[in-house]
Each structure stands twice: as C-alpha cells, then as structure tokens.
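ingest -> validate -> predict -> emit
validate: passed (alphabet ok, no gaps, 274 aa)
predict: started
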Amino acid sequence: MSQLTRNLTKSFNLYQSFRAFSTSSVCQARDQGWLNNLFVRKIEPTKESHSSKLSDKEIIYELHTHNVRSDSMDKYLANYKQTVDFVRSQEATANCELVGSWSVTVGDLDQCVHLYKYTGGFERVDNFHNNVWTHPDYKKLAKERGNMLRARHLQYLLAFSFWPEITPRAGKNIYEIRSYKLQPGTMIEWSNNWARAIKHRAENDGPFAGFFSQIGRLYNVHHIWCYPSLQARKETRESAWKMPGWDECVAYTVPLINDMHTRICVPTEFSPTQ
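emit:
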C-alpha cells in the first residue's frame, strides 16, 4: 500500500469516527431533552416517610388475595361467609370491618379478593391477630379453607389521602382492580399527578378506593373503580380522555410503572359493597 493510500485511509477513518461521535452527541442531547420534558416534576429529598405525606397512618387496610381450586369455589365461598360471620361476632373486631369481597371474572380466574379496614393503626391489627386468628373456631375454618386454595397473598395498605372517601355501593355493579408495580422512589411523583387526575374521574362516582402498599409487595398501587357494567366502564374511560389534563396524567405516570394488570370482579353475596 502506497503512502498516499495509507494517508487517505487514515483520514477517512478519522472522518467516520468524528461523524459517529457527533451523531451520538446529537442523539444523546435530543434524548436528554425529551427526558427532561417528560419528568418535569422533580421530587426533592425528604426526611419524612412517603406514607406520612400521602395517607392517614391510623387507618390500615388488609388485602387478602386467594387463588381457589377450580373445583372448590362454592365450598370456598360458603367457608368464607362463615369466617366473616365469625369475625363480626367477636368483640376484638370492634375496630375491624370488611369493606369489600369480590370474585374475579376477568383476569386471574378462580381468584377472590377481600378488603378489611382497621381503625387505630397496626395496634388494632396486632390485637385482631392475637385474639381472632388464634381462636379455635377461626383456626378450624382457616384449615378447611386451606384445602381449597392453590395460593394466597396478604398485603397491608394505606389509602391515598386525595382519593374520595370509600362508601359502599348498592345495586348491581362490577369492580375493576387496577394494580401497578412502580419504580422504587416514584410514589410521591405518582401521587402528585393522580391528586390532579382523580378530579377528572370523580364526577361519575366511579372511584371506589386507592391504595399503596406498606407490607407485602412494596411500591404496589391499587386503584379500585366501580361501574354498572363493562359498557359503562368503556364509556367512562373514553369520556376521561376528552377532559383537559387527563392525557397529561397518563403521559407523566406511565414511565413510572414497571408492571401493571387489571381484574374485573363481582361482589360476593356477603360483601358490604355491592
């Protein structure tokens, strides 16, 4: 190879390297600008826990998720109704109440979800466990129920302070439980956006409850919505997109989510909310 050829090759390689570097820098700057525009709401470090900012820590919610054997649903529901009746009969449950009980019809089938409320913080939870879960009659029902289950999960939750107060519903309704797994450290940013967005959905009485996890699977959020039917759900969700600000909430919160899923549920016959 002649000296001239080597010089030309060297110059061409230098040009290619410079071009690649320039293109990378431009793309990086463009991407950084896009990210800056997306996450415009910065959260400053805080010395307070997230829960103290977002909720009343004296009210604890207990969410039981039971995966039932497909051949045992009727027996399971009969057993759980007995359990609910027993719990209501105990003096130690004065500060504990069943908020809602549902079976899943779309999503994780052969699954039931039960939501309890404790007033008085974790002291009341401890009192309930020490006096009710250890009771022979309760243990007998729990043992029978265990033979009907494939899996179960228990989670302690706090309610978002900006969510409308939970009120039992009458009539025939369906409930949608939308569950999100957030990136660690993003709970306040999520809440700041939803505190504004919930106003766009409150008019139709759809929001039933909104929680974030304290014990169990962490950085979990559960939004529970109530609708008369699947068609009403469709119309309600479509109308939300017509309201200024709803699209902004979605744009800011979607990047905070690692995983999400939704379940359509119907109340059990013994559920306080229907």
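The chain is about 40% helix and 30% strand.
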